[in-house]
Amino acid sequence: MPKSLLLLLFVPCAALAAPAGPHAATPTREHFAPPGWEGSYRELHYSPVVRIGDRVIVSGIPTPDGADDEAKARALFVELRKHLRSAGADLDDVVELQSFHVARDQAEFRERIAPVLKAHREFFKGHYPAWTAVAVSGLYSKGATFELRAEAVIGSGKAPRATIGKP
């Protein structure tokens, strides 16, 4: 095939793939606040949930009141689900978690994270997000013993695949 014909075939295809203008590929950014969290945006000036295209970022959610740390952890994952749903995502779409645990030392940290690990196993059964857990000296919310933040990609939980070697 002559080079000129190849060039004619390539140019129109490349033109179709290119964005139409400098902002054509710019994703939208939407801010969400589940019921009861509106004050975070209006008074504290942060978004509880931000959606950029199919990416959803959930700001840190502090532990709610509860009978014990295990009940608090379960309630926290329920609250995370509400935050995600406000932007069109769900727990299956979570690709990363970050948790912050008030602890003075390694032993207390391990004690504090144990109920969170138990609740995590209840809410993430088929596949698991990346997760970073950090010990901290304190959190903004008075009385909170831990806080959870997350990132999700809408639709990514529909057909997850784990390519993990056998032990």
UniProtKB/TrEMBL annotation:
Alphabetized UniProt keyword annotations: Signal
Pfam families in the record: Ribonuc_L-PSP
Source taxon at top rank: Bacteria
The UniProt record lists the keyword Signal: yes
Signal sequence bounds: 1-17
SUPFAM superfamilies: YjgF-like (SSF55298)
InterPro entries named among the record's database cross-references: RutC-like_sf, YjgF/YER057c/UK114
Record flagged with keyword Signal: yes
Protein name (database record): Endoribonuclease L-PSP family protein
